[in-house]
Design a protein that fits this description.
- The chain is 27% helix and 25% strand.
- The protein is globular and about 35 Å long.
Length: 118
Amino acid sequence: MGLNGVRESLARRVPDGLFPEATEVGGWWKRQNNPEAGLIGADTQSVARRVAFVGSVKWRDETPFGATDLAELVASAQQVPGAQDAALVAVSRRPPTRAAAEGLAAHWGPEAVIAAWR
């Protein structure tokens, strides 16, 4: 499943109790693709009035979402217009490290991504 599939899965999961205002899930990047936010949960698709979350997808077999990934996500989120107060989320094949999990509002793994299609 690629990034678009993950976005579509999350779009099926939200809005929910954690992110009730996130009616659209997409991505954001500058023209140079740096920074890039793979996941944006917002109230509208084109120009969001409210960004609920900014997230990253790291679908690696052996390495969990870690502190370096979280630092990159924080740096990217700070540059997303309107996302200064947005929650940070991650989607990864393996659970995040303890240090990274402490900085995330939510984490979705393979089971959660697939469950959105049931």
